[in-house]
Design goal:
The chain has about 375 residues and is an alpha+beta fold. The chain has three domains: about 110 residues, Butyryl-Coa Dehydrogenase, subunit A, domain 1 (Orthogonal Bundle); about 110 residues, Butyryl-CoA Dehydrogenase, subunit A, domain 2, CATH 2.40.110.10; about 140 residues, Butyryl-CoA Dehydrogenase, subunit A, domain 3 (Up-down Bundle). The protein is about 55% helix and about 15% strand. A four-stranded mixed β-sheet has the order 1-4-5-8. Strands 2-3-7-6 form a four-stranded antiparallel β-sheet, with helices on one face. Strands 9-10 form a two-stranded antiparallel sheet. Helix 7 runs antiparallel to helix 8. It binds flavin-adenine dinucleotide. The site of flavin-adenine dinucleotide has 20 residues, from strand 1, strand 3 and helix 10.
Amino acid sequence: MKLELNDQQKMIQNMVKEFAEKEIAPIAAELDQKEEYPTKILEKMAKLGLLGAIIPTEYGGAGLDTISYATIIEEISRKCASTGVITSVHNSLVSWPIMKYGTEEQKKKYLPILAKGEKIGAFAGTEPNAGSDLGAMQTSAVLKGNKYIINGDKTFITSGSEAGIIVLFAVTDKSAGPKGISAFIAESDMNGYKVGSIYEKLGINASKTSELIFEDMEVPKENLLSKEGEGFKIALSTLDGGRIGIAAQAVGIAQAALDESIEYSKQRQQFGRPLAKFQAIQWMIADIATRIEASRYLVYNAAYVKDEGGRFSKEAAMAKLFASETAMEAVVKGVQIHGGYGYTKEYTVERLFRDAKITEIYEGTSEVQRMVIASNLLG
Ligand SMILES: Cc1cc2nc3c(=O)[nH]c(=O)nc-3n(C[C@H](O)[C@H](O)[C@H](O)COP(=O)(O)OP(=O)(O)OC[C@H]3O[C@@H](n4cnc5c(N)ncnc54)[C@H](O)[C@@H]3O)c2cc1C
């Protein structure tokens, strides 16, 4: 088994790395401080085909494999974790379920728009009383004539205020529990679609996270994704793939913390020597680097199994669990290596410290990942 990216994957990784260094790194801190959505960056990414990374070429996408996609999310997140999650949601949580479960008409209508970045995608699952327990959602969808009438509130929706195409989940049969949930493709200009509060957050501040409110929202019958009652299954399988993206985002954040820490520890002198000469600092660097390498291979492994068509829930959960906990360890040690300066906004590691935490929470908390892994092992 050769544990190496192939030539095409390396080329994509290098191209995105160069792009992120040139176009994202110079403005990432400013976007974070101003809590500004990275619209211009996304436009440039769309031109490079990165918003349609996984969409097949016949629908206007780049048709890339999941390992290439993971390298894209890692390199983007290494410079701006907010742009990383927007890209991951757009590809994994919106384009993918339409690719996998959409009718030919739905694919032809929505995938080219998503691939060109003409509209950004959002995934509306979570509700005020249904987070980890997504099956407890209450948003309702009632078929009237040729339209579903949707009522309810979604919360914590990445790009909720910016998105044009939303994969959303609602209950079509209250008596059936999670088996009564259905998936829909909604558009933000549909009657009854409203953006609620936009949250002030600890980190990933350039990515807008909002409430969505549906008041008698009219969604055409033909926008049902798959069949009634298939929504929970669609949500879970979509989140399996999404976790590879978030794990890659975590690797990007961790790698950035390592990059910053290596550079700083070589420059900063104390006791007449660079910090890098002290064993305590060397061991922190060694520990972070080792965990990052292991995380990256877990991500590639999950991506590989997905592309081979195998079941990859366990692999994706392991990758997300380990990579997100690695990101937290990397930023905690990264700030420590920077000392007092690491606690100020003058150093990138402060932003990384705030950005890392969310990777342990969204698309399933670490506790949920452990539940997924354990249930795969124990039945
Ligand atoms: C910035 C941000 C962006 C997000 N983007 C999106 C998005 O685009 N789309 C979307 O649908 N959602 C999104 N979310 C929601 C996110 O997926 C949820 O916050 C997450 O799944 C956890 O749900 P919760 O917040 O309701 O926490 P809860 O489910 O209330 O969990 C609280 C705590 O209890 C633990 N817990 C819960 N149940 C168990 C159990 N059975 N055993 C052990 N521990 C348990 C959890 O692990 C956690 O530690 C986003 C959230 C944030 C903060």
